[in-house]
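Researcher: Please predict.
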Amino acid sequence: MSYDLRAVIAEGKAFRDATRDLAAARVASIGQGLALMPMTDALIDSVADGSGAGTLGFWGLPGGFEKTLAAWSAGGPVAYVEAEYFGGVGEQRAAVWNGGDIVLGPLHVEERQPFPPAGSPISQALRRLGAVAGTGEDEFSAVGLDQHRHGEAWIA
């Protein structure tokens, strides 16, 4: 089984307002008042500035898009997350912007590397967005990111 996610996550209403003029954006509600925007091919094509891959170490962050994320974060924290797993082995990356600056990360846990005591990169990012884990779960599962195995399934 595989899991693949490349997405922007932020507080629901503010996020929908920020992406309103971005025709390729598709935003789905996830748990705890957060919303997720998968990085679809159409979205990547519409936001890339032609400068190639970004400098933050992400696989799928279009060149120049970090400036947009910084601008969106003027209204509250915004996370960019990536996860790719196959057969239980994989990697995670995450960063959070707030007030125009990166306030967390970029974080990266490589294949076969254990998560740090603070949790996975994505759980740490979700915590910065206000997500709260319950007993026996992390923020990743608390907001329901385990409901779909592929990013575009959130908007299907």
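Model: Helices lie at 12-18, 41-47, 65-72, 121-128, 139-142.
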